[in-house]
Amino acid sequence: LRTLTLFFFLAAATRAQDIPALPPLMPMPAHIAMGQGLLKIDASFRVKLTGYTDQRLRRGVSRMLVTLTRRTGILFTSEPTPSAETAALVISCDHADKPLQLNEDESYRFDVTPSAIYLKAAQPVGALHGLETFLQLVAPGPDGFDVPAVSIEDKPRFAWRGLMLDSARHFMPIENVERTLDGMAAVKFNVFHWHLSDNQGFRVESRVFPRLQTVGSGGQFYTQAQVRSIVAYAADRGIRVIPEFDIPGHTTAMLVAYPSLATDPPPVEIDHLFGVFDPAIDPTKPGVYLFLDKFIGEMAQLFPDTYFHIGGDEFNGKVWRESLRVQQFKQAHGFLPTVADPDGNTALHAYFNTRLEAILRKHGKRMEGWDEILAPGLPKDIVIQSWRGQKSLSDAVHRGYQGILSFGWYLDLIQSAQDHYLVDPLDKDAAALTPDEQTRILGGEAAMWTEWVTPETIDSRIWPRAAAIAERLWSPKEIHDVRDMYRRMEAVSRDLEFIGLRHRSWQTLMLQRLAGTGDIENLRTFAEMLEPVKNYDREEFGPATTITPLIHLVDAVPPESQAARNFAADVQAAISSDAQARDRARTQLLSWQRGIDGLPTLLEHNALVSGIEPLRNHARELNRVAIDALDALQSGKKLDKKWRAHSLEVLKASGTTYDALSICTQQSIGLLIDAVSS
Ligand code: ACM
Prior knowledge:
The chain is an alpha/beta fold. The protein has 25 helices and 18 strands. Strands 8, 9, 10, 11, 12, 13, 14, 15 and 16 form a 9-stranded mixed sheet that branches. Strands 1, 2, 3, 4, 5, 6 and 7 form a 7-stranded mixed sheet that branches.
C-alpha cells in the first residue's frame, strides 16, 4: 500500500513539480492519505443513509446526485436508497444538528476503498461538507468515472468562514444570491454576510416601516418571503446568514424614507454615486431608539442567526459636528473634546452603539460591526470585523472581544488569488497574541463590494479567487504552496461553472456583445495580456453610478490572467535555462501576436472597443522585445545597449493604462530584458 500522508506532502512542498499530485481538492483536507486503487462510479452507484438522518441531509444527497449526473452523464436515482447491499456510498451521522450556529462540529471522515465509500460525521452539517469533498474527487477514468482510494479526516481550522455580498450598491437578484451560496457550499464557506442597506438603497421589505422599501429602494428589494427562502437555502447548505444594516452612516436610503431619524439636514434623494456621504442617524432623538427597537425586532424574526451586523464603518461625523442639537446633547452627557476625540463624536458613537447593543440583546442578538465600533464599554461577546488593517483584529481580541478578518480579502480590489491566499488571520500583529487571545479570532470573510460589478459580472469578481480564501480559512496553516493552490483552484473553478456559476462563461457573452460578432477569438487572445487596474484605480477612468453600464472590455477581463501567470512561470524557468519553458513562452507570445494582428478590422468597426487601440500597439511592441530576448537566451548572446535602451522605453510605455486595463505581462518581460542585456 502506497500511503501518501500529509506530512510527506508538506515535506516535499518546497519543490512543487516533484509533488505527486494529490486530487484537486479545495479546501485541502486537514489529513489525507492516498490508498491503492479506485472505486468505479457507474449506474449501480447508490447512497445509503445510516445513523441519524434528516430532510436536510436527504436534500443534500439529492443535490449531490443531480450534480453527479450532470458531470458524468449517468442517470442516478436522485434519492438515497434504503437497501444496504447496493450502496456504494454509506453515510452515517451520530446525531442531529442543533439549529445552525457558530462553532458547529463540522468534522467528517471519508474513506474510499475499491469496493465502498464511508462518510462519517458527527452531524449532518459535517456530512454535507464530506459530500462536497466527494464531488471534487470524482474524475473521468478509462471506463467511466472513478474515485481514488483515499482516507480523509477533515475539520475546519476556523469556525467563521464567510463571504460578504453587498446587495445595496448594485442590487443582486435572487438567482445571483442562490448561485453564490452554491459556490460557497462547494468550498465549505459557512457564513453569508449580506450587506442589505447603504446610501444607494435599502434592500429588504419591512412591514413595520414600509417606506424603507417603497421610498428607499428604487423598487429593488427582497420581499420577506424571498429572504426566508434564502435563509432556508443557505441553511440547507450549512451556511449561516448574517444581515447587515449599516448605521449610523451609510444611511442615505433609510433617511430619505424616514427623514425624522436623520441628523439635520435630512437627505432628500438616494445616492447614485459612490463614496462616503454625510447623512447620518441622529443619536440624540428618543424616536431613533424606538424605531431601531421595532425595526430590529422585525428583522430578528426574519434572520434567525444569533449575530446581527450593524455596520458602523466610515461615518465621517460632519452632521454631528455641525448640529446644534447634537452639540447640546454632547455637553449634557459629558461627551467633551479630548485629544483623541477632538469633537466628541467617538464618545457619542460609542454611546449610540451601547444603546443599539442593548436593543439587539433584547431581541436575542449579538452585535457584530466593522472595526470602527471598537470602543470601551461594549460587552465582550460582540464580534469585530477587521477591515482597516490586521492590527485592528489583534487590538480587538487583545481587549477581550471576538474578531474576524476581512483586511486582505477585499475581492473588489482585483488582487490575485495568491495575494489573498497568503493572508492569514493569525499572522502579522496576531502572531504576538497569547494562544488564549488567538482563540478569539474566529476566522474571516471575503468581501464583495459592488460599486463596480453588476449581476452579469459579479461571478467573475468572486470566483474562483474566493476559493483561495475559503481554503485559508478551512485548511491547516501549513498548506500554502501557491503553485499547488492554483492547480487545484483551476479544477474547482471548472466545477463551479458546472453547478451554475458564470465566472468563465460570462466572458464569451460579453466579448460577443462588445465585438458585435461571434468572431471573438482574437479579442479573447489579446485580452489574456490584460488585467483590470487594481485597487480602486478604476475610479480615475470616470465616475460610476448605480446605473452606469459596466459592459466594457475591463468588465470582460478576469481579475488575473491565467495565461499571463503561466507565461510568467515559463519566463522564470527560461531564464534559468529551461529550454522547454522557453519554447512555451515563445509559442504563447506568437499566439498573442496573432490575436493582436487580427484585431484591426474589429477595432475599426466598433466604438465600444476602439479605445484599446493604444494598448494593442504597446502590446505588439512589447511582444517583439520579448521574442528578441527569448532568441538571445537561446543563442546565449547578450543584446547591446541600444537594444536595451529601446526595450526599456517600450516597457515603460506599456505600463500606461487605457480604459482601466493594463498589460499584465510587463513585469515578466522586464525580467527577460534584464536577463539578456544587463
Ligand atoms: C468598509 O469597507 N467600509 C467596511
